[in-house]
Write a structure and sequence with these properties.
Layout: H1 3-20, H2 30-47, H3 51-63, H4 70-77, H5 89-92, H6 98-110, H7 114-123, H8 129-134, H9 138-145, E1 157-158, E2 164-166, H10 171-188, H11 201-212, E3 223-228, H12 235-250, E4 256-263, H13 266-278, H14 282-286, E5 288-290, E6 306-309, H15 318-323, E7 338-341, E8 344-348, H16 357-366, E9 377-383, H17 385-388, H18 395-405, E10 409-415, E11 427-433, E12 443-448, E13 454-460, E14 463-466, H19 469-481, E15 490-494, E16 499-506, E17 511-514, H20 517-527, H21 530-540, E18 547-548, H22 551-564, H23 571-581, E19 582-584, E20 606-611, H24 617-626, E21 634-644, H25 648-652, H26 661-674, H27 678-683
Parallel strand pairs: 3-4, 3-6, 4-5, 6-9, 10-12
Antiparallel strand pairs: 1-2, 7-8, 9-11, 10-11, 12-15, 13-14, 16-20, 16-21, 17-18, 17-19
Helix pairs in contact: 1-10, 2-10, 2-13, 3-4, 7-13, 10-13, 11-12, 20-21
Length: 687
């Protein structure tokens, strides 16, 4: 559908809301009416050409005593759904009696086959019929939606000479239009669907290119399964199917595609199911399922060839914990998110409770095929946090580690900001596969496409730019060129480039023991040990032994004196000595433990990240980065934890070139000349 027709249809739908619902509904509730009627009109328009034949067949079957007629009537309609009521929406627009219209409209809705009933129920439109009827708006809405100047069908409206009068509304455009209308309603009421970032067509096209073009010469005449665990209105699935079929045809192959999706928002789930039905794929509609992919995986233990997704990010997934039985994050045992790896039977891939996107990535990885030539390919949209959040040993870092160490990541592509309708943040496309071609094995390609954009003439929410077909080809050329790509935009690294060892760097503990009246008073009040108090008091009077700069020597002296005085030396009393009379002092000697090893000062402990590729490893890092600056520091090698993170800025940052002093002075002089010496009179001239 061309842009002009699309814009006209979008304005038409928005106009219906303003014309028909004002003074009856708040603007924030417009969507409750417009969205379901939008979908119902879509079904109605698709079924309209065969309606008379369907009704005639229904009557014939009922006369013959056949009551289960849906399957036969679908065959007559040529669709995977049907409406067996007497009416179309066009028939209902002529009703003048509101009570009759209400009755007939309910009858019309009830006439849809069961697969459409589920969709209608998700919109809860039946709850609004009484109100619309009482306010005399039901007929007005129907009359608007059946305006012959607008085509909601999946077939072109033709002129008498066979030329196209009004373009068909294809399924992806239907989904895009639906999402755009939602965005417009939300914008009017300052509401956002938090974390739900509808994917614009240009990005969906790029995702499909990345999924299929790299393996187009390996496509066979067989069946492929495409999955989206956050399918929204199903746009990824629809475009993905179109792309692989087109590429297969070029290769002389005939493929069978099955689509699978899951969605947990009523409205978007309903439109995804509706799209599948309108495409004539009733079985595929059954493969779009409702519920949370995180806590209620409808495709458990299934595998897919291609997984394309734009999961929600930056939103809480506490509701999933409740769905699991109101458990805590650490109690999750789902094998998609807690795996056996690197000798750890409970290796957690679970991110922070405030961001679920990496759970979707882990879910997709768990569904990769291993026994086929292509394996599986995953293309997933993420924000920047997936690149670096989480410390070594925490869920996000563990998932990155697993991805890189298992050599699953082919590429990560940074795309421009302001590409999505309801967020302007920077986003990245993760490209994963478990069957890399030979030249890519052990390597990851980073592509900086943040500057590759075309400005829109008019913003669509936050979206102010797009990636045109030419730009998408530019990105694909960089991807396919791999190590031969322009290094300004593409760089290739070994997997280990992004790994590091997180280690503790310790400084020795140095303690001075001071026994004086102030410390003794505190100990007497809090220590509750009169005998030990009296024993220590003798040292406070002797300036030569009241302060010790060698803790170990101090203990030896006190233990010896206590023994001579018949006082029992206990661990509790030694701990009290350190608590009430000891303080750290750089001038003091190092404290040694019972094995003669230096004790570490917990207050001076620091954490360092040592790149896995650092020359000389831990020892090399110590000799070059630590010892020259802190000669008494040591690295606790037993504390080492492997982590992974990456930063596009580190690899693609382009510093601004500063102007020279000469250029600045020249400009100032030029300004002075143009202001007839005014600047000189103010600052006293320039030498």
């Amino acid at each position: 559908m061309n842009q002009a027709t699309y814009n006209s249809l979008k304005s038409f739908i928005w106009g219906i809301a303003n014309d028909c619902l004002v003074d009856v509904y708040d603007v924030g509730d417009y969507r409750k009416i417009i969205l379901p009627l939008f979908v119902i009109r879509r079904f109605d328009a698709v079924l309209e050409p065969t309606h008379d034949a369907v009704i005639e067949t229904r009557k014939t079957l009922e006369t013959a005593g056949i009551m289960k007629t849906d399957e036969a009537l679908m065959a007559v309609a040529g669709q995977s759904f049907v409406n067996k009521s007497e009416f179309t929406l066009t028939d209902l627009k002529s009703r003048t009696n509101q009570q009759q219209l209400k009755k007939d409209f309910i009858n019309y809705l009830d006439g849809f086959s069961q697969n459409v009933q589920e969709i209608i129920n998700k919109f809860h439109i039946r709850n609004e019929i009484d109100r619309l009827s009482e306010q005399d708006r039901l007929g007005l809405l129907i009359e608007k939606f059946v305006d012959p100047r607008y085509n909601f069908s999946n077939r072109d409206v033709l002129n008498p000479d066979g030329t196209v009068k009004i373009e068909a509304l294809d399924n992806h455009t239907m989904g895009t239009l639906f999402e755009e209308v939602i965005r417009m309603f939300n914008e009017e009421t300052n509401v956002t669907d938090a974390g739900r970032h509808f994917t614009p067509r240009d990005i969906v096209e790029l995702i499909a290119d990345l999924a299929f073009i790299p393996i187009q010469d390996k496509i066979q005449s067989t069946t492929y399964r495409i999955y989206d665990g956050a399918c929204g209105t199903g746009g990824m699935l629809t475009v993905g199917e179109q792309h692989i079929k087109k590429l297969a045809e070029k290769q002389g192959k005939k493929v069978s595609i099955h689509l699978f999706g899951q969605e947990n928002a009523d409205e978007t789930y309903a439109i995804a199911r509706a799209d599948m039905l309108v495409k004539g794929e009733g079985q595929e509609a059954d493969q779009v399922r409702f519920g949370s992919t995180i806590s209620d995986d409808k495709f458990a233990r299934e595998e897919f060839d291609f997984m394309l997704s734009n999961p929600p990010f930056g939103t809480s997934w506490k509701t999933d914990l409740k769905a699991w039985g109101d458990i805590k994050k650490q109690d999750i045992t789902d094998s998609r998110f807690v795996i056996e790896y690197d000798g750890n039977p409970e290796y957690s891939l679970i991110p922070d409770i405030g961001d679920p996107q990496m759970l979707f990535l882990a879910n997709n990885i768990s569904k990769m095929k291993k026994g086929t030539e292509l394996g599986s390919r995953i293309i997933e949209v993420h924000n920047g946090s997936s690149l670096f959040t989480g410390k070594a040993g925490q869920g996000p870092s563990n998932l990155r580690r697993y991805i890189f160490e298992q050599d699953l990541c082919e590429a990560i592509i940074a795309i421009p900001e302001n590409m999505f309708y309801n967020t302007g943040i920077g986003t990245y496309l993760w490209v994963l596969t478990n069957k890399k071609e030979e030249k890519r094995k052990g390597k990851v390609q980073l592509i900086d496409a943040t500057s590759m954009k075309s400005t829109l003439r008019k913003n669509l929410g936050n979206k102010n730019c797009e990636m045109t077909e030419e730009i998408r080809k530019q990105v694909m050329d960089l991807y396919l060129a791999f190590e031969d790509a322009d290094p300004e935009y593409s760089k290739v690294f070994p997997n280990a480039e992004f790994g590091y060892l997180q280690v503790d760097v310790n400084r020795p503990l140095r303690i001075r023991v001071t026994i004086n009246g102030e410390n003794l008073a505190i100990f007497k009040e809090q220590g509750k040990d009169e005998e030990f108090y009296k024993f220590l008091s003798q040292y406070a009077e002797d300036t030569f032994v009241s302060e010790f700069y060698d803790y170990n020597e101090c203990i030896e002296i006190l233990q010896k004196d206590a023994k001579e005085d018949g006082i029992k030396w206990t661990k509790k009393r030694q701990d009290a000595l350190r608590k009430f009379f000891a303080s750290t002092d750089e001038k003091a000697k190092i404290v040694l433990d019972k094995n003669g090893n230096p004790e570490a000062d917990s207050n001076l402990k620091e954490t360092e990240q040592i790149p896995l590729l650092y020359e000389g490893g831990i020892q090399g890092f110590y000799e070059k980065e630590i010892a020259p600056y802190v000669d008494d520091a040591t690295i606790d090698e037993d504390s080492a934890i492997i982590g992974y993170e990456l930063s596009f800025t580190r690899y693609f940052y382009k510093p601004l070139e500063l102007r020279t002093i000469e250029d600045i002075i020249s400009e100032i002089k030029d300004i002075e000349n143009r202001t007839d010496g005014l600047l000189a009179s103010i600052i006293g001239g320039i030498n």
